[in-house]
Structures are given as structure tokens and as C-alpha cells.
UniProtKB/TrEMBL annotation:
This is Spondin-2. Monomer. Interacts with integrin. Residues 1-30 form the signal peptide. The lineage of its organism: Eukaryota, Metazoa, Chordata, Craniata, Vertebrata. Keywords: Calcium, Cell adhesion, Disulfide bond, Extracellular matrix, Glycoprotein, Immunity, Innate immunity, Metal-binding, Secreted, Signal.
Length: 338
């Protein structure tokens, strides 16, 4: 089967669905704006460029870093521009079915249907944007989008691949500041758990969370299980796994940007857009518990020696604590010696 052809077919179908959503949203009457949020009074629309930069390196995240089947990478990015009364996803709230499907499998159909329904019901969605997948943990993806006073917020989601149901994104970033648009916004991104799959590692098999949990941010100490791929007890905070830069540009007629092909770069760009120094997160050695003591070996009537062993679960990296000794011996005396 031609996978490239299938990818194009999927992208084309998604494109037509997004266009349909936009038509519905544009043709709807506006609902009253909530009075408990700052009012945007900018008189003109604004065009922005979005640059997503993956910072998921083996140096920064050495524990169980996925190098094959599949290697570390990012899904396509799906986002919306909207009013303050809409949320694609929220921390400490339950993920919708659409967010669950996208976070677990990268399937966007239900998520797009939810966006369409929000546009019809409360006229809260103005535009939809997409950026291509990144084949690698440290590549970039780009897109452009438009906002206006009634719909000045941006939300998006991108799946961490591989993972049980982990993603990065932003929830309701307001690009308006009173009567004008912000020139540039840069946000560091950290991993979130959608609360729908209970896997602890990047490559965990499907293990549905019953009952469903809330969306939570993954930290260096939460979930507090040593098997968790992001568990680094020596760190106070995880380093950012990605960042997004939103830059105001001159207006164009293009509202939706839907590149059909994934980007192929899996190296950090070397231009001025990346000023951060590379992070080396120390990873300590982890070893198993000791085995039981072995048989006592020695001549009858004399003291003998017995051994026990343990094995390495996780090798150290980036100047982490070295592995302790893996074998011990002690003196013993044989029982039932004749």
C-alpha cells in the first residue's frame, strides 16, 4: 500500500473538513462576549506566524529515550483561534473524546467534529490551523493564522510520539493586549497526560484508564513512579520539551495553512531562532534488588563463600550517579556437612 498516497488523502480530507468548519463559523451570528475577561478592542485583524520547535533530545531526556520503532517525533499540530468561551483542552479537566483520540492515536476526526459543533453552537471558533508532523524530536514546524478582536485566543495540541496519551500544547493564549496586538509571544512547552491511558513509558501498551482521569502536567516527580519515562527525582523541574513562538506579521489573504508533507529535519536548526544552550539532564544508574544468596561453596568443615548479584536496570548518562557493585560475597558454613 502506498503510504504517501494515503497520507495525502487523509490531509486532503482534513483540509476540506476544516474549510467546512470555517464556513459554518463565519456564517454564524456572534454570541455575547463574557464580561469577566479582558476585552479586546483592536480594530483590525492580525496575521501571525507560528513556529513550533521540538527540544526533545536524548541529552535533555535520556531516560528511555525512544530511538526506534518509532523514534522520538511529533505529530502534526492542530489548533484553533477562538473566543474566551471555548477551550480545546484544559489542565485539571477531563479530555474530550476528540482530544483522547488525538493524544492516544493521532486521529483528528472527532476533534474536528467537536470544533465544528462549537462553531455552530456558541460561534466561538474563528479559524483552524495545522502544521505538519516533525520526523524527529528536535525539528520545527511552521504555519500562519489570523485572529480578530472577537476571537483573539489561540489553542493547539501536538502529540508526543511514541507515548500512551501524552501531548504538548497551549490553552487559550490571548494575543490581544487592549487595543493592539502583541508583537511576539514565546512559550516553553511541557508534557501533559490526557488522563485516558495509564501507561508509564513511551512504549507502554494500551492500558485504558478507568475511570478516566483529568488532564495533568507531567513533571520530574509526577507521576511519582520510578518506571515513568519523565521521572527524574534529582530535578526540581523538567526542562522544556518544546517551545512555540508566535510572531505578528503583515496581513495576507491566507487564513489556513495545511502543509501536506511532514518535515524531514531531525536536527536542531542552527539559525538565530534557537538561542537556548543544549541541556544535559543527569540520569542516575538504577539497579535491581539483590538476588537471594547462593549456595555455600567450600570444603566440609571449613568456612566457604556464597554470592549474590543484581543487574542494571538503567545505565547512567550525562554525569549521573555511577552504578554500584553488582556482586557481593560473604563467608558461610555449609549445613548438613558429612
Amino acid at each position: 500500500m502506498d503510504t504517501t498516497k494515503n497520507a495525502l488523502t487523509f490531509s486532503e480530507a482534513l483540509y476540506h473538513l476544516l474549510v467546512m468548519v470555517l464556513v459554518v463559523a463565519r456564517g454564524s451570528q456572534s454570541m455575547p462576549v463574557p464580561t469577566d475577561v479582558p476585552m479586546c478592542t483592536a480594530s483590525e485583524t492580525a496575521q501571525y506566524s507560528l513556529t513550533f520547535t521540538g527540544k526533545w533530545t536524548q541529552a535533555a531526556f535520556p531516560k528511555q529515550y525512544p530511538v526506534y520503532r518509532p523514534p522520538a517525533q511529533w505529530s502534526n499540530l492542530i489548533g484553533v483561534t477562538h473566543s474566551s468561551d471555548y477551550h480545546m483542552w484544559q489542565s485539571n479537566e477531563f479530555a474530550s473524546n476528540g482530544v483522547r483520540d488525538f493524544a492516544e492515536k493521532g486521529e483528528a476526526w472527532n476533534l474536528m467534529k467537536e470544533v465544528e459543533m462549537a462553531g455552530e453552537r456558541i460561534q466561538s471558533v474563528y479559524g483552524i490551523l495545522s502544521a505538519p508532523a516533525v520526523v524527529g524530536g528536535t525539528g520545527q514546524m511552521h504555519t500562519e493564522f489570523e485572529v480578530f478582536a472577537r476571537h483573539s485566543y489561540l489553542s493547539f495540541i501536538a502529540r508526543i510520539i511514541p507515548s500512551p496519551d501524552w501531548f504538548v500544547g497551549v490553552d487559550s493564549v490571548d494575543l490581544c493586549d487592549g487595543d493592539h496586538w502583541k508583537e511576539k509571544v514565546t512559550l516553553e512547552l511541557f508534557p501533559y497526560d490526557a488522563g485516558t491511558d495509564s501507561g508509564f513509558t513511551f512504549s507502554s501498551p494500551n492500558f485504558e484508564t478507568i475511570p478516566q482521569d483529568r488532564v495533568t502536567q507531567i513533571t520530574s516527580s509526577f507521576p511519582s513512579h520510578p518506571a515513568n519515562s519523565f521521572f527524574y527525582p534529582r530535578l526540581k523541574h523538567l526542562p522544556p520539551i518544546a517551545k512555540v513562538t508566535l510572531t505578528k506579521i503583515k496581513k495576507t489573504n491566507q487564513i489556513i495553512s495545511l502543509p501536506l508533507e511532514p518535515t524531514q529535519s531531525n536536527l536542531l536548526p542552527t539559525g538565530n531562532e534557537i538561542e537556548d544552550t543544549l541541556i544535559n539532564t543527569p540520569l542516575d544508574c538504577e539497579v535491581s534488588v539483590w538476588s537471594p544468596w547462593g549456595l555455600c561453596k567450600g570444603k566440609c568443615g571449613d568456612s566457604g563463600v556464597q554470592h549474590r548479584t543484581r543487574y542494571v536496570i538503567m545505565h547512567p548518562a550525562n554525569n549521573g550517579v555511577a552504578c554500584p557493585q553488582l556482586e557481593e560475597e560473604r563467608k558461610c558454613f555449609q549445613d548438613n556437612c558429612l
